[in-house]
Amino acid sequence: MIKAKKSLGQNFLIDKLILENITNTTNIKNKIILEIGPGTGNLTSSILKKNPKKLFVIEKDNELARNLRNKFKNQITVINDDILRIDETLLFKEKVIVFGNLPYNISTEILSKWIVNLKENFWFESLILMFQKEVAERIVAKFNTSNYGRLSIISNWKLNIKKICDIKPDAFYPKPKIDSSLLFFSPKKNFIKINDPNNLEKVTRIFFNQRRKMLKKPFNQLFNGDQKVLDNLKINLNLRPQNLDFETYYRLASEYEKLRS
């Protein structure tokens, strides 16, 4: 058996029922599929049973990539590279469905990279991704809750997100010490335009830097107390960062962008 590398956050999914449930999340017959971190190829096998048009897998580990090529031959295209260094928009001419048992240590970095780099035309049809459960809870969190924060706001900007299920450690080898959650992401048709996503990152970073403090200080830091912005967005500066909904943050980022232009 191939030994998982702790340095790469490897935990191989082995539960056949869970694998089946993941591939049943959406119709993948005759679709182009991208799998991130296929590991030993257990999910890869389940995907192939659903008759996709083509299956690409991205695997950073050289030994695992070699093993996948030997195991699946010409059934799949193996890309032996780091997902954080790849521009997915250059790989595909049509939209793809993405599956990923993401390494826990870089899962939010991967998601953030995809969201920040999204253009008007999405390169994917949907994302079916696995995260550490507490990270997933932050991604799907609603405002006025303790888990709501920067990750929730940035993730929900251009994507609809639905939690599919939680997955226990027993489903993996080696067993992680925490539960996992499977999330389904699909593109939003309408969202507030922000030309530079870094402005949304900056606004949320400054507001949530002191999440228990009132909004007055971060607002003044960004907008110098601009009354017009307050009136337009109907913001009460006595509230705290988690009390503002998604749309207010997107509009704040848009207003901040106008100030800088």
List keywords for this structure.
261 residues; alpha/beta; Rossmann fold; Helicase, Ruva Protein, domain 3; 2 domains; two-stranded antiparallel sheet; 35% helix; elongated
Helical amount: 25-40%
- What is the alpha-carbon Rg in Å? 20 Å
Strand percentage = 15-25%
**Stretches where pLDDT falls below 50 for ≥5 residues?**
4-9
How do the SSEs run, as a string of H and E? EHEHEHEEHEHHEEEHHHH
Spatial ordering of strands, largest sheet: 4-3-2-5-6-9-7
What is the SS-derived class? alpha/beta
Largest sheet, strands/sense/barrel: 7 strands, mixed
**Would you give the CATH topology of the largest domain?**
Rossmann fold
How far apart are the termini? Answer: 57 Å
Number of strands: 9
Number of helices in the DSSP assignment: 10
How is this structure best described in words?
This protein is an alpha/beta fold and 261 residues long. It folds into two domains: 6-187, Vaccinia Virus protein VP39 (Rossmann fold), CATH 3.40.50.150; 197-260, rRNA adenine dimethylase, C-terminal domain (Helicase, Ruva Protein, domain 3), CATH 1.10.8.100. 35% of the residues lie in helices and 19% in strands. It contains ten helices and nine strands. It has helices spanning 16-23, 42-48, 62-72, 107-116, 133-140, 150-155, 197-208, 216-223, 227-233, 246-260, and strands at 12-13, 32-36, 54-58, 77-79, 96-101, 124-132, 159-167, 172-173, 180-187. The chain has a seven-stranded mixed beta sheet with strand order 4-3-2-5-6-9-7, with helices on both faces. The radius of gyration is 20 Å and the shape is elongated.
